[in-house]
Automatic annotation (TrEMBL):
<dbReference type="Pfam" id="PF02775">
    <property type="entry name" value="TPP_enzyme_C"/>
</dbReference>
<keyword id="KW-0786">Thiamine pyrophosphate</keyword>
<dbReference type="Pfam" id="PF00205">
    <property type="entry name" value="TPP_enzyme_M"/>
</dbReference>
<dbReference type="GO" id="GO:0050660">
    <property type="term" value="F:flavin adenine dinucleotide binding"/>
</dbReference>
<protein>
    <recommendedName>
        <fullName>Acetolactate synthase</fullName>
        <ecNumber>2.2.1.6</ecNumber>
    </recommendedName>
</protein>
<feature type="domain" description="Thiamine pyrophosphate enzyme N-terminal TPP-binding">
    <location>
        <begin position="30"/>
        <end position="144"/>
    </location>
</feature>
<keyword id="KW-0028">Amino-acid biosynthesis</keyword>
<dbReference type="InterPro" id="IPR012000">
    <property type="entry name" value="Thiamin_PyroP_enz_cen_dom"/>
</dbReference>
<feature type="domain" description="Thiamine pyrophosphate enzyme central">
    <location>
        <begin position="219"/>
        <end position="354"/>
    </location>
</feature>
<comment type="similarity">
    <text>Belongs to the TPP enzyme family.</text>
</comment>
<dbReference type="InterPro" id="IPR012001">
    <property type="entry name" value="Thiamin_PyroP_enz_TPP-bd_dom"/>
</dbReference>
<dbReference type="GO" id="GO:0009099">
    <property type="term" value="P:L-valine biosynthetic process"/>
</dbReference>
<dbReference type="InterPro" id="IPR000399">
    <property type="entry name" value="TPP-bd_CS"/>
</dbReference>
<comment type="pathway">
    <text>Amino-acid biosynthesis; L-valine biosynthesis; L-valine from pyruvate: step 1/4.</text>
</comment>
<keyword id="KW-0479">Metal-binding</keyword>
<dbReference type="GO" id="GO:0009097">
    <property type="term" value="P:isoleucine biosynthetic process"/>
</dbReference>
<dbReference type="InterPro" id="IPR029035">
    <property type="entry name" value="DHS-like_NAD/FAD-binding_dom"/>
</dbReference>
Length: 617
C-alpha cells in the first residue's frame, strides 16, 4: 500500500549532533518506566489492553502517566481491533498491550487483520523471564515466532537498556513505508531491571529505507499511456487513504477525465457522489465498476494490490488492459498481475508527479478522448444501478435499514462494519464522501471487528459520531467490549442487522448448496433438542445490551425505522445498540461467484448482463 511518513507522524527524531543541542536528560528508571516514557515520547496517547503476570510491571508506572490513557478491554482481541480502529480513524499508530501466553495469542487475529490491511499498529506483550524462555514456563508462548509471518517486523527484548530504542524503532517501522503491525515482546525481568532512560535513542535499522520518490521516467511513461488510452480506469486502493493523497487523487481524476473505482478499503478516497466515480469493484462490486475493469485498455492501479476479491479468476481479469501499478511496497508490483509500467513510491508523490506529467502531455497536444468510453459507462450505470427489493411480507429490508442509517447520520460520522452481508450492504448503500469515514476488515475478513474497532475509532476521535454496522453473528463474537465502552465513556452506536443467521454463508448455501442450510441458523437450536425454544430468539440483544450498560432499542416495523434511528442519534452520553429484525432471505447483489471470471458478474440472481465479447464493445 502507498503511504507517506507524514500521514502518521510517529517516528523517532534523529540523534542531535554533538554540540548542536543540549545533551538529553538521563533518568535512572526501571525497564517498565522506560517503556511508558518511550510511549509518551513517540506520541502514543491511548493504549488498549489487559494486565497479566508478565506485563504487570508495565502497569504500575502507567498509573503515573499523564499522557497515556489505558483502556481496559474485556478480551485481547478487542484490544487489537480497537487499536486498529483507532489507527484507521486517526492516521496515528494504534497501540495494544497484553501479557504472555494466551494474552499474546489472543492478539494474533487482530495482528493478522492489521497486516492484511496495512494498518500501523504496535502490539506490546509481556514474556516470561529471559532465563525461562524455551522451558515451557507457565504462560509461555513464542509469540515472536507465531507472529513472524503476520507482522511487518517484531522484536524480543531481554535487556532493559534496549526498551526505549526498540519502541522508537517499532513506531517508525509501523508508520513509514507500507504501514503495518509491529510486535514488541518484552521479558519480565527486562521490565523489572534498572536502566537509564534518555531520548531520543539511537535507532539501528540497517537496510530499512522505504522508497517514497517515484522514478521520473516511469511517471512520464504512465502519463503517455493515460493520454493515449481510449478506455482507462483509475483503480484506487486503500493505500491512497493511508498516504493522505485523496486531494491529489481528485485533481488527477478531474484532469484526466478517467473513471475512478475505489476498492472496499478505499471507500471515501474519492467522493461517491462524484460523476466520475463508477463504484466499488470486486466480487460484490457494482456492475459498472467490475465491467469497466474488464473492458479497460489501461488500468492505473494506485495503492491497490490486485487481490482475488477484485480480480476474480486472475487469468481472465482485464484481458485488454495495459497496467500501470504504483505502490510503495515493491513486493506487490507484479505479484498477481504483471505491470507494463511499475512505479515504486509514495502515493502522494506518485499522484502529484502524475498530475504534472499529464499536464505536460496536454500542453503538447496529447489529450485522451474518452467520450465513447463514457457513453458505455453511463449506459451500464443506468441499466444496472445498485438497488434492492423490499420484502413482500412487510418486514424490514436490511439494505433499507443501512441506507437510512447513512442518510440520517450526522455529518462526519465514522462507520465501521463487521464481515458478511451487512458489510457489503454498508459499502453499497452508505455514501462515503471523505476518507477515514469507512473502517472495515478487508483482507482478513474478520468477524467481530466492528464493535471494538468502533470503540477505538471513538476513543481516537471523540467528537465524531461512530456507528458500527454489525451482523448478529459478528456481534456475538466481541459484544463484550460494549462494557468497556459503557465504563469508559465511549458512546458508540451499534446497528445489529439481525436476520437470525450467518447471512453470507446462508447466501452461498442458497446459491451453491441446494438451500441446505447446515449450521447457519443463529437464534434458535434444533427443535428436537429444545422444543421449548421454538420460535424464540436467543439471545435477546436488547436485554444483553442493557445488562452491559447500554441504551438498547429494537426495530421490526419499517414504519418505525426513521424514528428509532433518530432516537439512537440523539443519545450521546452512553453506547446505544439497536436490534433491527430484518428479513432472513435478503441477498447481496451484484455477485461474482468465487473462482469465476468477472465476465460472469450477476447483477441479481439469474440476471447476467450481456456486454458482448469483443474488445471494442
Amino acid at each position: 500500500m502507498l503511504m507517506t511518513e507524514q500521514a502518521t507522524g510517529h517516528h523517532p527524531q534523529p540523534r542531535p549532533r554533538s554540540g548542536a543541542t543540549p545533551a538529553p536528560t538521563v533518568e535512572h528508571v526501571t525497564g517498565a518506566q522506560s517503556l511508558i516514557r518511550s510511549l509518551e515520547e513517540v506520541g502514543a496517547d491511548t493504549v488498549f489492553g489487559i494486565p497479566g503476570g508478565c506485563i504487570l510491571p508495565a502497569y504500575d508506572p502507567m498509573m503515573d502517566s499523564e499522557k497515556v490513557r489505558h483502556i481496559l478491554v474485556r478480551h485481547e482481541q478487542g484490544a487489537g481491533h480497537a487499536a486498529t480502529g483507532y489507527a484507521q480513524a486517526t492516521g496515528k499508530v494504534g497501540v495494544c498491550m497484553a501479557t504472555s501466553g494466551p494474552g499474546a495469542t489472543n492478539l494474533v487475529t487482530p495482528i493478522a487483520d492489521a497486516h492484511m490491511d496495512s494498518v500501523p499498529l504496535v502490539a506490546i506483550t509481556g514474556q516470561v523471564a529471559s532465563k525461562a524462555i524455551g522451558t515451557d514456563a507457565f504462560q509461555e508462548a513464542d509469540i515472536v515466532g507465531i507472529t513472524m509471518p503476520i507482522t511487518k517486523h517484531n522484536f524480543l527484548v531481554t535487556r532493559a537498556e534496549d526498551i526505549a530504542r526498540t519502541i522508537a524503532e517499532a513506531f517508525h517501522i509501523a508508520s513509514t513505508g507500507r504501514p503495518g503491525p509491529v510486535l514488541v515482546d518484552i521479558a519480565k525481568d527486562a521490565l523489572q531491571a534498572k536502566t537509564t532512560f534518555s531520548w531520543p535513542p539511537q535507532a539501528d535499522l540497517p537496510g530499512y529505507r522505504p522508497v517514497t520518490k517515484p522514478h521520473a521516467k516511469q511517471i512520464r511513461e504512465a502519463a503517455k499511456l493515460i493520454t493515449a488510452a481510449r478506455r482507462p480506469v483509475l483503480y484506487v486502493g486503500g493505500g491512497v487513504i493511508k498516504a493522505g493523497a485523496t486531494a491529489e487523487l481528485k485533481v488527477l481524476a478531474e484532469l484526466t477525465g478517467a473513471p475512478v473505482t475505489t476498492t472496499l478499503m478505499a471507500l471515501g478516497a474519492f467522493p461517491d457522489s462524484h460523476p466520475q466515480h463508477v463504484g466499488m469493484p470486486g466480487m460484490h462490486g457494482a456492475v459498472t465498476a467490475v465491467t469497466a475493469l474488464q473492458k479497460a485498455d489501461l488500468i492505473v492501479a494506485l495503492g491497490a494490490r490486485f487481490d482475488d476479491r477484485v480480480t476474480g479468476k486472475l487469468d481472465s481479469f482485464a484481458p485488454y488492459a495495459k497496467i500501470v501499478h504504483a505502490d510503495i511496497d515493491p513486493a506487490e508490483i507484479g505479484k498477481n498481475r504483471a505491470a507494463d509500467v511499475p512505479i515504486v513510491g509514495d502515493a502522494r508523490e506518485v499522484i502529484a508527479d502524475l498530475v504534472q506529467a499529464v499536464q505536460a502531455e496536454h500542453t503538447e497536444g496529447h489529450r485522451g478522448d474518452y467520450s465513447a468510453w463514457w457513453s458505455d459507462l453511463n449506459r451500464w450505470r443506468e441499466t444496472y444501478p445498485l438497488g434492492y427489493d423490499l420484502p413482500e411480507d412487510g418486514s424490514l429490508s436490511p439494505q433499507q435499514v443501512i441506507q437510512r442509517i447513512g442518510q440520517l447520520a450526522p455529518e462526519g460520522t465514522i462507520f465501521t462494519a463487521g464481515v458478511g452481508q451487512h458489510q457489503m450492504w454498508a459499502a453499497h448503500f452508505i455514501d462515503y464522501e471523505k476518507p477515514a469515514t469507512w473502517l472495515n476488515s478487508g483482507g482478513a475478513g474478520t468477524m467481530g471487528y466492528a464493535v471494538p474497532a468502533a470503540m477505538g475509532a471513538k476513543a481516537g476521535m471523540p467528537d465524531r459520531p461512530v456507528w458500527a454496522i454489525d451482523g448478529d453473528g459478528c456481534f456475538q463474537m466481541t459484544n463484550q467490549e460494549l462494557v468497556t465502552c459503557a465504563l469508559n465513556n465511549i458512546p458508540i452506536k451499534v446497528a445489529i442487522i439481525n436476520n437470525g443467521a450467518l447471512g453470507m454463508v446462508r447466501q452461498w448455501q442458497a446459491l451453491f448448496y441446494n438451500q441446505r442450510y447446515s449450521n447457519t441458523v443463529l437464534h434458535s437450536g434444533p427443535d428436537d433438542v429444545n422444543p421449548q425454544a421454538r420460535g424464540t430468539r436467543v439471545p435477546d440483544f436488547v436485554k444483553l445490551s442493557e445488562a452491559m450498560g447500554c441504551v438498547a432499542l429494537r426495530c421490526e416495523d419499517p414504519a418505525d425505522l426513521d424514528k428509532v434511528i433518530a432516537e439512537a442519534n440523539a443519545i450521546n452520553d452512553r453506547p446505544v445498540v439497536v436490534d433491527f429484525i430484518v428479513h432472513e432471505d435478503a441477498q447481496v447483489w451484484p455477485m461474482v461467484a468465487a473462482g469465476t471470471s468477472n465476465d460472469e458478474v450477476m447483477a441479481a440472481r439469474g440476471v447476467r448482463p450481456d456486454f458482448g465479447d469483443g474488445e471494442d464493445d
